[in-house]
């Protein structure tokens, strides 16, 4: 004869949120993504719909003219925007950037840490719209972006 516990359907595990994943990442309980090592990005603050991180270009990110390549800033802005959206999703919900509009205001310098901040402005069932910016330690704006991300609900 089967035990009553064996006959009951298994309880569903509670869904983990993207916010919980990011908080664990910030606290060092789970490893950062590989892109966060390639483009040195470290979360410093995570709230629903908003993230802040330190980004630090190095010699790997220089163009032939010896300047930090604009792709470094674009990747960091895209990453910050994506994480701002992720903080408002279930961790298993797929999403991807469909549009990124970047404005470069001041060049970045290798070896200096910058602050990248992103905010989720609007989220529907299928789309997220975010703004992101990179500022120097002095508060001066270096680059800003708007991003549209597609959400693929399960």
UniProtKB/TrEMBL annotation:
Residues 66-141 form the Thioesterase domain. CDD domains: PaaI_thioesterase (cd03443). Keywords: Hydrolase. GO terms for molecular function: fatty acyl-CoA hydrolase activity. Belongs to the thioesterase PaaI family. This is Uncharacterized protein (TIGR00369 family). It comes from Variovorax guangxiensis.
